[in-house]
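Thought: the user asked what Tripartite-type tricarboxylate transporter, receptor component TctC looks like in 3D. I have the sequence; next I should run the structure tool and report back without guessing.
Action: structure_tool
Action Input:
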Amino acid sequence: MNSKRKLLAAITLLGLSCAIGVPAHAQDDSFPNKPIRIIVGLAPGASTDTGARLLAQSLSERTGKSFVVENKVGAGSTIAASFVAKSAPDGYTLFLGTGSYATGAVLYKNLNFDPDNAFVPITQINRFPQAIAVSAGSDIKDLKDLIKLAKADPGLIMYGSTGHGGQAHLTGELFTQLTSAHMTHVAYRGAGPAIMELISGRIPVVFADLFSLMPHVKQGTVRVLAVTRGERAQIAPDIPTTKEQGIDGLDVSAWLGLFAPKGTPQANIDWIQQQVAAALADPELARKMVESGAEVVASTPQQFADFFQRELSVYRDVATRANITMD
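Observation:
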């Protein structure tokens, strides 16, 4: 009789340990046991690609695991996003999202994935301050001057950006909507051509990333009126913000962040986020990020999820009001 009771007790304990001992979303102890791919939607050599490779190298060295960058270029990074969205949700295929991906996810209407729900945000890696600039000899001395001129002749003032539907374009449209100062958009193929047109006097204003503008600021050919957010930029703390000049709601920075396919085990998500945070805490990697114009963020999955949903909401509203599409 005692033997039967002992056997029943052992079976009961075994059942309980199986039921509650290992959560369904627990990380496999062997994860990762093969290379983790980071899919980038921009071409090799682009600043986003460079940032991804710096991070992948640091992660590989730190963890002893293999992190590999792959490029799938086109359609505002939505081709890369679609590839990852359809990948196995196991943590081995990640998408490197950007601010331009957030605008592309809003503007492309025929996507074969849902940008709101296809991914699990892992972490925002960094951010790149965006700015509003004029040529050094311009009579526009601050945002008050720019707004006054734009309101005096609606549509006459032209502003350049890095391309139709890009983050700089939508930042310019958000500026006009918040200030009721209508300007006409001129799209260029990247920050470099737009800045050259600014310097030559063909356009009076440019919306671009601060890092691309700073060499020209140092050469004395460009003057930055403001960074488009509530706090000053680390690489140029003397430049005022849009908020300081009376514009609320214009809080836009370019950024890099990692996503995994929806359904990826939370424990794997947490492991990746923790490794990225540890890598970004390394002074050498942080220095390299700063040299590329970035400010380290290393957010939690929930912080990044909240941030990304805000990005989508802002850009959807701007695009709807300005009737901007990509299809």
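Thought: the tool returned a structure. Summarizing for the user.
Final Answer: Structure for Tripartite-type tricarboxylate transporter, receptor component TctC predicted. The beta strands are 36-40, 67-71, 93-98, 119-135, 158-161, 184-187, 205-209, 222-227, 253-261, 295-296. The domain at 36-127+254-322 is CATH 3.40.190.150 (D-Maltodextrin-Binding Protein; domain 2).
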